[in-house]
Amino acid sequence: MESDFKKEHEKLLDLTKELMPQKFGRTGVIWVISLVVIIAIGLVAYIHQLSKGLIITDMRDYSSWGIYISNFVFFVAISLVGSLISAILKLTHAGWRTPLTRIAEVIAVSAIAFAGLTIIVDMGRPDRMINLFIHGRIQSPIIWDVLVVTTYLVISTLLLFIPLVPDIALCRETGVNPSFWNKKIFKFLSLNWKGKKSQFFLVHKSIRILAVLIIPVALGIHTVTSWLFATTFRSGWDSTNFGAYFVSGAFMLGAGAVIAAMFLIRRQYKLENHITDAHFDKMGKLLVLLSLVYLYFNINEYLVPAYKMKHGEAEHLNDLFTGHFSLMFWSVQFFGMILPIFVLISKKGRKPLPAFLISIMVIIGAWFKRFLIVTPTLLHPFVPIQNVPDAWKSYNPTWEEWSIAFATLAGACLLMTIFIRVFPIIPIWETAEERGIIVDTHEEK
Amino acid sequence: MIEEETNSRREFLEKSIVGGLTALSAASLFSSCHGDDVKETGEKVKLLSPDGTIVEVDSAYINTNIPELHLSEHNIREGVPGKKFVMVIDLSRCKNARKCKEGCSKMHFLPKERSYVKVEKMQDSEMAAPYWMPMTCFHCDNPPCTKVCPVDATYKLSDGIVSIDNNRCIGCRFCMVACPYSARIFNWGEELYGLNDAEAKAIPDHDACSSHKLGTVEKCDFCPQMGEKNELPDCVKACPNGVFYFGNEYDDAVTNGDETLQLSELLKTKAAFRYLEELGTKPRVYYLPPVNRLFPFKDSEESKNS
Ligand code: SF4
Ligand code: SF4
Questions:
Q1: Closest-CA distance of chain A to residue B97, Å
Q2: Do B57 and B89 reside in the same domain of the chain?
Q3: Neighboring chain B residues of A228 at a CB cutoff of 8 Å
Q4: Inside any domain, residue B75
Q5: Containing H/E element for A227?
Q6: Count of structural domains within chain A
Q7: Fewest 10 Å CB contacts: which of A169, A238, B33, B230?
């Protein structure tokens, strides 16, 4: 018995060595440097904004929200993937999800952290942020958002961290890569993990509880985010459909983001044994399903008002369908939603490379989709836009806005990259369990 | 019953008519009537009592020393006591003179082209004739803008005014998207105001109405510092055509500086309406329809639609 456990443990350690975080190659280094440069440019722009005010953006009295807000919605949307993979797929016993859970969870945590940051960037008076806590009023959807986003961040972080604890302990045990920092941090983060049965029992149980908890909170964050728009009277936002519309779009975007991350990580770390073509196939199918659901909500959201062409709505819709925003609108609908369905529905389309390319399209489409939700509506208020300089009648983000938006995106990517560099991105003990290796080899004392 | 006053008493009206009309102030106005030996001047002044009847008193009895309430001294989250401000805008009189905008700009230290009042060219349908529609903040009784504010920086006061605390606003601009009338503007940057440092410093701090603080929201504030002194807001005073009527709902009276009318009667007889009533925002600004216009419609460059 003793020796059996030993053998099992050897297997576990071998797997750990295989999945240990690795040093970056040249591409990795270039990637990190570019991210840092983008962030630095964004920081310069933000300092500029802090000193001058939002005047450096192209937001004005009519287009009073711009790409900061659409970027925020994008971040919140993408973060929903954490709950999709770790919770929904877990509760439906989709075993193949195991190697993807951590990828999804790290995307979720980084995205939601930067969603919060983006909101601060958008504020006219970030120095008064404390007022949200001193004077917060529960009737404002912004406060709901603050509450539910914070809750989501906490649960997601736990869902990322708890399954990581045994893996950190395993990484320590292998003794590979024993740099000073790694040793210290890993020792601290492994929380005295011994690999006992009772400890594994606790981990399993807490993951299960969190997986159930996170589903309503995930639906909550994006529903409440949609209410920032739907609680107003504006054409295009005044919809009872908005919560479901946002949530479905978010799941679709999240699935796309996971596919893209899977592809890049697998390539960089040579993880073909763990993230297999079958995973792309499964995720591809999932993305088709989610795109179809999103398509359904899009038809609802655009066809029903377009059928009636109510005054106000009509101007907004005409602008989207045939007017100023039509090129962007149709490109987003086609490349970001219709085409992915057609490509991924075929088996060939779900091979890693095409699936990756499609997922990039989905991500870019989703970003612009959020732009199309925010900006055109604001440019079609009930009271006609008159008596303002011509430049105020349209919205063309300035270089500062773009730099800051890109910097937040780069920041989220950098956070994920650092995580992948420091921690094993494929869950080790869960993979071992999947493969029938006994993980709790330490006897209770 | 509407008493049309045509004699020129604009100056007096500007000083005290709004308050002079109230039952409350009426009491204080005549406080010196009893016992004191007041020398009558012989100059009679007509006042409208709350029930709509006209009373005539000697101007000597008018107590012009109504104690002043400094807005900055009372709680900015309460309104002016005894008031419920209301406005009526007569669309049949507007000829796009834009003096209201100028008056507002001056009053609020705004650049000329930027003010809290908009004058919109409106045309309800293709066949309908276009008309000019001045718009302020409507100080809605069910204000969607205050509901969404996360920090209670914009709120409804007892005098009907929807106010902004520019020292608390975090600049999220949610209230701007929530207002269906685009009444709110934002302090995007000081350079928009075209003020140099000295000019900016010269702006008196007036807590109870919109002030310029970088990164916060502003809008028409119904000039409470004028209303409490029983004076008229600058847009009302500046309009050469008497388009704006302002008053206290408790008095059931409004005035444009030239004539004082009974509010309820005016709204009834002139078929008053509120803009986008179907939204349920309950504006405190009423419109009289653009019928029997005083001026022919003349288009202007500024109002070309985008
Ligand atoms: S007009 Fe707009 S800003 Fe003014 S009270 Fe109504 S909703 Fe609020
Ligand atoms: S911009 Fe200011 S007043 Fe308006 S909702 Fe935000 S905090 Fe409140």
A1: 14
A2: no
A3: 174
A4: no
A5: helix A197-230
A6: 1
A7: B33
Instruction: Specify whether B179 is located in the same domain as B265.
Output: yes
Exposure pattern of B156-170 as b/e (b: 16+ CB <10 Å)?
bbebbbbbbbbebbb
For B66, the 3-state DSSP assignment is coil
Q: Which domain holds residue B46?
A: 2-61
Q: How many domains does chain B have?
A: 2
CA dihedral of residues A58, A60, A65, A68 (deg, nearest 10):
30
Interface test with B, best of A140, A150, A324 (most B CBs within 10 A): A140
Judge contact between A225 and A112, C-beta under 8 A.
no
Q: In the structure encoding, which two tokens stand for residue A422, read together? A: 């420091």
Taking CA atoms, what residue in A is nearest to B123? A384
Residues B9 and B120 both lie in one domain: no
What does pTM read for this prediction?
0.88
The CATH code of the domain that includes A179 is: 1.20.1630.10
The distance of A381 to chain B (nearest Cα, Å) reads 7
Record the tokens describing residue A373, joined without a space. 């939700």
| DSSP secondary structure letter of residue A23 | -
B144 touches ligand 2 (CB under 6 Å): no
The angle subtended at Cα B69 by Cα B206 and Cα B144, nearest 5°, is 55
Nearest by CB to A131, from B151, B181, B305: name it: B151
Q: What is the mean pLDDT of each run of 10 residues along chain A (445 residues)?
A: 78 87 88 97 97 94 96 96 86 88 95 96 96 94 95 95 92 73 80 87 94 94 96 95 96 96 93 94 96 97 95 94 97 96 96 97 98 97 92 95 98 96 92 86 58
Contact check, Cβ <8 Å, B148/A143: no
Q: Is the dihedral of CA B140, B141, B142, B143 positive or negative?
A: positive
- Nearest-atom number in ligand 1 for the CA of B162 is 5
Element (H, E) at B245: strand B244-248
**Alpha carbon distances (Å) from B256 to A98, A438, B70, B88, B183:** 74, 88, 24, 9, 22
Residue identifier of the C-alpha nearest atom 4 of ligand 1: B137
Is A398 contained in some domain? yes
Q: Are residues B120 and B236 in the same domain?
A: yes
Nearest CA in chain A to B216: A124
